[in-house]
């Protein structure tokens, strides 16, 4: 049996080496694709091409008796690597006549990411850091685009220092709230203004499929090229009113971060063994625990600023606290019928999204389970 098993394993190893050779060929071809896209100003992410290619490969896999989801998983992981490598070819510069891009707060992680992207697109990039304000007039004198990316509690004060920008300079910010910064920029600068919110962190390998929210300020025809530049980087653009954006962020960011904070605080006081929790965890709980733990591996000031950035956030969290209390009352009364009734109401509210989220979460959980190594 051992001899037969070793022979089969040797054959598997040989096939794996062929797969490696084919992957190397594919990545080399992707590099050439990146060069062509860079030359012609094409986005690195082409959703129609990706969808058609995946559908074709799934169909071919099924004919060969290969699970379609297997080839899709392999290709999606390969494409993620491809998007990251395509950016090394650089990007077409859509506004070569633009004067310098000044990133206020460019020494930070997010500012650094955008600085690299602008440099890869051929723009001249300058950084205005916290120690550079004595030379700010000199740095800003020839600015064609100023990007403000500083902590939320400093944003308005920094914007107020930008009163002497060139009239045609585009002023924008990357803050996770939009109404107040947008109002401040409109008040201090009479030229084109746009509010931006990248819905990702600075550690993304590429901007392919990442969302950048934009809120109109003034002079859209003058900053339209900037939005197209983001698209070439692979980002998906989401246009929204600033007030509507901020209301959405109370749920997407403030409430979500607060509940993670509260859960982490509770865990630390209960003081269980994390190793034991992981041993006992299903993939979904491990993923939930990872998302909570991830919060506490980052800057507390950032998350404190996000949660405390508006009174609306606090009021939303208070309403959640009230809802939590009502749910606890149902449990305290051991009222299973009330639990089921409320459960069904929420299920009706989600509607068809319940099944969509079930499908999406199953794929995430498979990936989470694949990454686990158990002794």
TrEMBL record:
It holds the Pfam family PDH_N. Keywords: Amino-acid biosynthesis, Aromatic amino acid biosynthesis, Cytoplasm, Isomerase, Multifunctional enzyme, NAD, Oxidoreductase, Tyrosine biosynthesis. One of its GO terms (biological process) is chorismate metabolic process. This is T-protein. It catalyses: prephenate + NAD(+) = 3-(4-hydroxyphenyl)pyruvate + CO2 + NADH; chorismate = prephenate. NCBIfam families: CM_T, PRK11199.1. The lineage of its organism: Bacteria, Pseudomonadati, Pseudomonadota, Gammaproteobacteria, Vibrionales. Pathway: Amino-acid biosynthesis; L-tyrosine biosynthesis; (4-hydroxyphenyl)pyruvate from prephenate (NAD(+) route): step 1/1; Metabolic intermediate biosynthesis; prephenate biosynthesis; prephenate from chorismate: step 1/1. It comes from the Bacteria. In the C-terminal section; belongs to the prephenate/arogenate dehydrogenase family. Residues 1-90 form the Chorismate mutase domain. It is found in: Cytoplasm. Residues 99-361 form the Prephenate/arogenate dehydrogenase domain. GO terms for molecular function: chorismate mutase activity; NAD+ binding; prephenate dehydrogenase (NAD+) activity; prephenate dehydrogenase (NADP+) activity. GO terms for cellular component: cytoplasm.
């Amino acid at each position: 049996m051992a001899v037969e098993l070793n022979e089969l394993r040797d054959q598997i190893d040989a096939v794996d080496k062929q797969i490696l050779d084919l992957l190397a060929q594919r990545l080399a071809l992707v590099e050439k694709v990146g060069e062509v896209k860079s030359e012609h100003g094409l986005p690195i992410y082409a959703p129609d091409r990706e969808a058609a290619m995946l559908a074709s490969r799934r169909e071919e896999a099924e004919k060969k008796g290969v699970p379609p989801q297997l080839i899709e998983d392999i290709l999606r992981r390969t494409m993620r690597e491809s998007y990251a490598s395509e950016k090394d070819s650089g990007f077409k510069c859509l506004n070569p006549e633009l004067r310098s891009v000044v990133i206020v707060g460019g020494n930070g992680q997010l500012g650094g990411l955008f600085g690299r992207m602008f440099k890869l697109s051929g723009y001249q990039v300058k950084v205005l850091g916290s120690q550079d304000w004595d030379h700010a007039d000199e740095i800003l004198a020839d600015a064609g685009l100023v990007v403000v990316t500083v902590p939320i509690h400093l944003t308005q004060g920094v914007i107020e220092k930008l009163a002497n920008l060139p009239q045609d300079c585009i002023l924008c910010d990357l803050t996770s709230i939009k109404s107040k910064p947008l109002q401040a920029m409109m008040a201090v600068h009479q030229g084109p203004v746009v509010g931006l919110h990248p819905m990702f962190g600075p550690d993304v390998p590429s901007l392919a499929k990442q969302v950048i929210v934009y809120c109109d300020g003034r002079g859209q025809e003058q900053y339209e090229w900037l939005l197209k530049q983001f698209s070439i980087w692979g980002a998906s653009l989401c246009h929204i009113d600033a007030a509507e954006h901020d209301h959405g962020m109370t749920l997407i960011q403030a409430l979500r971060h607060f509940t993670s904070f509260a859960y982490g605080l509770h865990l630390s006081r209960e003081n269980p063994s994390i190793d034991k929790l992981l041993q006992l965890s299903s993939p979904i709980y491990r993923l939930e625990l990872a998302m909570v733990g991830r919060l506490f591996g980052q800057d507390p000031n950032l998350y404190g600023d996000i949660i405390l950035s508006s009174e609306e956030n606090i009021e939303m969290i208070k309403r959640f606290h009230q809802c939590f209390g009502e749910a606890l009352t149902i449990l305290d009364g051991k009222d299973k019928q009330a639990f089921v009734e409320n459960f069904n109401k929420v299920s009706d509210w989600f509607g068809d999204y319940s099944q969509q989220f079930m499908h999406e979460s199953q794929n995430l959980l498979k990936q989470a389970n694949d990454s686990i190594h158990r002794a």
